[in-house]
C-alpha cells in the first residue's frame, strides 16, 4: 500500500494575492494594500518561531508583474528595499534562513546587493523563508531543462536538480489567497503532487490563524502520489 496519510507539512507555499482589492474596498491607494501585505508577511514570519514548518515560500513578485504601471512596480520595489532593511536583524535573531527563487539578479543593483547581504547573514538559520522575486515557473523549467541538456541528460530528475527550489523540502501545500483559483505561473513543476487550498481572504487580512487552519486541513488529506 503506497497511500500515505498526510501528517505534518514540511513546506508550504503561498500566492499572496488580493492587496489591490483590499485597498479598493477601503477606497485607499493600491500602495496601502501592498504596505498592509508586507505587514501580513512580517506577522506570519514571526509566527513561524512557534511552528514546526521547515520552509515557507512566498510569491512576492512575478516575472509578469513588470506589466503593471511603472509607479506600482516602483512602489513594490521600494517596499522590498524597506522591508529587507527593517526586518533583516529580526530574521537573523529568529533563526530564519532566507532563500530567493526566481531571476532576482535581474532586479535593481541596490536590491541585488541588499539581498546578497541578507542571504549571507541568514545563512545559519534553521527555518527557511523562500521569497519568489521576479519569478516565473515556466522560465524556471526552461532554464533547468537547458542546464540539464548542457549536462547531457534531460530527465525529470535532472531538471528537478536545476530548479530554483532544489535543496528545499518537497512542496506539501500550496495556498492562494484572494479567491482566484489559478497558479499564475507559480511552482508549476513543484506542485505536481502538492495539496492546494484556495482561500477567500485577501492577503492583507491573512493571519497566522489562517495558516494554522490550512495546516489542519492538510493533515486531514490523504495523499496518494499515484499509488493506492
Ligand atoms: C498581490 O496583490 C501582490 C502582487 C501581485 C505583487 P495584487 O496587487 O495582485 O492584488 P489584486 O489581485 O489586484 O487584488
Ligand atoms: C500572482 O498574483 C503574483 C503574486 C502574488 C506575486 P497576480 O495578481 O499577479 O496574478 P494574476 O495576474 O491575477 O493571475
Ligand atoms: Mg492579484
Q: Supply the CATH superfamily name.
A: Decaprenyl diphosphate synthase-like
Q: Cofactors and ligands present? A: 3-methylbut-3-enyl trihydrogen diphosphate, magnesium ion
Task: Quickly give the CATH architecture.
Answer: 3-Layer(aba) Sandwich
Strand content: 15-25%
The helix/strand order is EEHHEHEHEHHEEHE
Report the major sheet: 6 strands, parallel
* Overall pLDDT level: 96
Protein architecture, described:
It is built from seven helices and eight strands; from the N terminus they run E-E-H-H-E-H-E-H-E-H-H-E-E-H-E. It is an alpha/beta fold and 228 residues long. It has a single domain (9-221), classed as Decaprenyl diphosphate synthase-like (Undecaprenyl pyrophosphate synthetase). A six-stranded parallel beta sheet has the order 4-5-3-2-6-7, sandwiched between helices. The protein has a two-stranded antiparallel ribbon with strand order 1-8. Helix 4 (109-121) links the parallel strand 4 and strand 5. The radius of gyration is 18 Å and the shape is globular. The protein starts with a strand and ends in a 5-residue tail after the last strand. Residues 16-21, 61, 65, 76, 178, 203 line the site of one 3-methylbut-3-enyl trihydrogen diphosphate.
